[in-house]
Design a protein that fits this description.
heterodimer; A: alpha+beta; 5-stranded antiparallel sheet; 5 strands; globular; B: alpha+beta; 4 helices; elongated
Chain lengths: 142, 220
């Protein structure tokens, strides 16, 4: 029951924020490159999902799992994308991501006049709150 | 409900087998008056709804027929131009049929080869060492389960999100593949599978899987 890392992208694919907690393997490239690869992969998966879906998709991609980790995806209607990598046994991550968007992102980034839209988030308050939120969730999940 | 389709992708990423099991048909036919409250867009040689979604007609649906005459590309079957016809107020009321676009074989091959790099990147971006590629991909309308054999062939099944036991089903499909495709003297590796026995056996397997799954869900 662990949370590995989080990526937040805006609607144009800019990496707004990255944080890792228990990451055991680095991808062997710079953070910028990794973010581009991640965004590109998700962009392709999204188009893949909308084409292959037998019914009309609404939210589209929810998550994918490999044998070692699960990637959970949440996109707000404004195109802000939250990507959370966890253990494969973790459940109900969607609610968690929604809560994270509502209680942390909107409160401490959108309502913060210092934070410029489309720029990486540097607010220390947001970083602390996010860290707190994830650590608290990790305790609940255990 | 149930299973929607099976795909087999070769080691090099080409689609070698595809079977649509029960893909739902989503179509609606309605009478429209002038002016049309839908915005249509010509994309990939199809007329797509780009704005003006309502209950049964969704963004992304394509125009299939006007007054019962099928539309292909932007042309009607009788040679008239569909967009000109829709723009002309004297033609109304018109009976338009919209539906979710059906995947062409080319699109399926394209999607199968698209899955290949996604599978590889997913394992590269893993936060944990020695991760495999994507095993299950969940969306709100379907679930994709992928099984890669040791020889690199990928078996994929697309099913309803509530469907269980897909891993066992894929192992069984692999078994059928080894029995009926690989042991067929007329089958060459990496080439599309055209074996009648494989088709019939796969179909009965899928029917069985669908039935047992419905039973399991009813018991719950």
């Amino acid at each position: 029951m662990t949370i590995y890392n989080i990526y937040i992208f805006d609607r144009l694919g800019t990496l707004l924020y990255y944080m890792e907690w228990n990451r055991q393997k680095q991808s062997g490239m710079s953070k910028e490159e990794e973010a581009k690869l991640m965004y590109g992969m998700l962009f392709s998966i999204k188009s893949f999902v909308s084409k292959i879906s037998p019914h009309d998709p609404k939210q589209g991609l929810l998550c994918y799992k490999t044998n070692k980790y699960a990637l959970h995806y949440y996109e707000s209607l404004t195109g802000i994308k939250f990507i959370l990598n966890t253990d494969i046994s973790v459940k109900n991550v969607r609610d968690l991501l929604q809560q994270l968007y509502k209680d942390i992102f909107v409160e401490y980034v959108v309502k913060n006049t210092e934070c410029e839209m489309g720029q990486p988030i540097v607010s220390e308050l947001f970083q602390n709150k996010l860290d707190q939120f994830i650590k608290q969730q990790q305790k609940i999940l255990q | 409900m149930g299973i929607y389709g099976v795909y087999i992708v070769s080691k090099s990423g080409g689609l070698i087998f595809n079977y649509d099991y029960n893909v739902p048909k989503i179509e609606t036919e309605q009478a429209f008056s002038y002016p049309l409250d839908l915005k249509l867009l010509l994309e990939n040689n199809r007329l797509l709804v780009s704005f003006g979604q309502r209950d049964t007609i969704k963004v992304g649906h394509v125009l299939l027929a006007i007054n019962g005459i099928p539309v292909s590309g932007r042309k009607l079957e009788d040679g008239k131009d569909a967009l000109d016809m829709l723009d002309d107020a004297t033609n109304y009321p018109l009976n338009l049929k919209f539906g979710r676009p059906k995947m062409t074989v080319n699109e399926k091959i394209f999607l199968a080869s698209m899955f290949y790099p996604l599978f590889a990147i997913a394992s590269q971006l893993s936060p944990k060492p020695r991760s495999s590629g994507i095993e299950t991909l969940e969306a709100d309308t379907f679930k994709l389960q992928c099984f890669q054999t040791l020889t690199g062939v990928k078996f994929m099944v697309i099913a309803d999100p509530t469907h269980t036991g897909l891993e066992q089903l894929l192992k069984k499909i692999y078994e059928l593949y080894t029995d009926f495709a690989l042991k067929n003297p007329f089958y060459s590796l990496e080439m599309p599978i055209r074996c009648e026995l494989f088709d019939t056996n796969l179909q009965s397997l899928l029917e069985q899987a669908d039935k047992t799954n419905i039973n399991i869900n009813n018991c719950k």
